[in-house]
Design a protein that fits this description.
The protein has 126 residues and is mainly α. Helices cover 85% and strands 0% of the residues. The protein has five helices and no strands.
Length: 126
Amino acid sequence: MTKSGEEQLEECVIYCQEQMAHAWVVRAFVRHSDEIEDFPELTLICRAIFDLSRALETRVDDPVGYFKMLNKKLGKYRVAISEYAKNVPDISTHTNFSQSVISMQSGLRELNLTLEKAREIAKQQS
């Protein structure tokens, strides 16, 4: 059975929320790391994750609104991840930090791909 465009968009929202759950775990790791006291720039990635998560969670029941918000907020999120990736090697060489960069970059890539998929689905609906 073929899923409707609305059902497909709802699945895209669920997938994005799963990606944001991964980011939230990175946020918790960074916030509770000892390094945050010596490197206040780490708070920027925490804030970016918080801001995007909170903005999106208010729209999980409105896929069209969800993806409009994701599109609006993704640029700032992308910049924060880029800065985080740039700063981490100077902050710590611990595997947890390097893996958190990979996790954030992977999640961003998945959010971008899912946003593009949602655009295609919405285009097919119109």
